[in-house]
Amino acid sequence: MTFSDSGAGFSLAAPTLSTPALAGEVGPRTLRAGFIPLVDASVLIAAAEFGFAAREGLQLELVKDVSWANIRDRLAFRQFDVAHMLSPMPVASMLGLGSNPSPTITPFSLGRGGNAITLSVRLFARMEQTGLTGPGEDALANARALAAVLAEMRARDEAVPTFGVTYPFSSHNYEMRYWLAAGGINPDRDVKLVVVPPPLTSDALAAGAIDGFCVGAPWNMVASERGVGRIVAAKQDIWPSAPEKVIGLRPDFAEAHRERVLSLLLALDRAASWCDDRANHADLAEVLSQPRYLAAPAELLRHVLSGEFSLDDRGSRRTIPDYMVFHDRHAGYPRPSQALWIYSQMIRWGQTPFSHAGLEAALSAYRPDLYRAALGEAAPDPAHDLQAEGREAGDRFMDGHVFDPADIPAYVAGFPVRADTGSVLEDD
Asked: From what superkingdom does this record's organism come (predicted)?
């Protein structure tokens, strides 16, 4: 990788990442895995429940947790071997961001999609009064309508609305901010962002503690079907290929248990393919609905897996065929350019400055070398590891920007709305 002295206009070659030396297995081939009750844990749950891990000689012990901070800490403290994680969490850890950062890598993505932004029915009613809202799928029109409401609230000296995200270093935080900024809203001045654990978002909205949230399925549909929320944007509206959840593990664990990790990746890949098959959705939804996993109605989960939305409780519906993608189009591949897009959002919102060392650290979090070691020729061509993002039809950002990983400073500077003094969100 080479750079110009200015830090912009540098050229990127595919990163050379060290691969752990093969280590002999010690002890039983058991993996303790932490997860948050979300539909995007499906691949991990299916690997345990439908025999994919067992076929690779692994026993997956799944442990449900309540917050991403807990997941982070329990992985760092070796209570978990691997964990269901937000895609930005390994990047943040390798940058040393947040409280208790501990080195974390990801060799596998658990899929794309699954997030949405939901606002309170009261706030959405005010947006409708502006005449600017579009159909349910017009996320940009909805953001502009919200901007008009916020201007009205400022004129009346009303308190700014409070929106929940699941973690500061999360796709939810960056997608909420991206959506707001695309509508001309400064997320650090015009609204208040707070951290709310995913299972509590619907209740927090119903109680009036927050006025909206960005979270993964099924909690947006839970809120809409309860009549307390209106879905105004989905992840696919913001950027269809945005990475969502990943498998996180400690680098030292990957080195000490390489064979076990590669077996896990094989099991997850086969489970992901199974989860993508609509013929299996009824069985998957039934398992996910159980109290030890999501504790949500199986019928609702089947709708989520099929991308069928209840936008509100008034009969407004929407279908996104690729709302949850687990395997298709290499959804499991940890593409380094996606890690760099995450890094760009951390820079955009004041969580970290750009630096060459930071760029290398962000790249080190995503490990396509381990993915290729497990899946061989089934892995994508490494020539595309550092591709421009948002350029292809059907995979564009909602505001038309294209992410060039070769010039992150220029990309960030091209946004009219970005951090002035940094994010104030705490990570616990």
From this structure: Bacteria
Integer Cα distance of 304 and 275 in angstroms:
13
Percent above pLDDT 70 for the chain? 91
pTM, two decimals, is: 0.92
- Report pLDDT digits (tens) over 199-249: 999 999 999 999 999 999 999 999 999 999 999 999 999 999 988 999 999
Burial class (CB in 10 A: 0-12, 13-18, 19+), 38: buried
The closest of 185, 209, 187 to 196, measured between CA atoms, is 209
Considering only the C-alpha atoms of the chain, give the largest distance between any 2 of them, rounded to a whole number of Å.
68
Query: What is the C-alpha to C-alpha distance for residues 57 and 43, in angstroms, rounded to an integer?
Result: 17
* Domains delineated in the chain: 30-112+242-306+323-413 (3.40.190.10), 115-240 (3.40.190.10)
Could you list the beta-strand ranges (E) of 87-200. Answer: 105-109, 112-113, 115-120, 162-165, 192-195
Q: Counting beta carbons within 10 angstroms of the beta carbon of residue 280, is it exposed (0 to 12), middle (13 to 18) or buried (19 or more)? A: middle
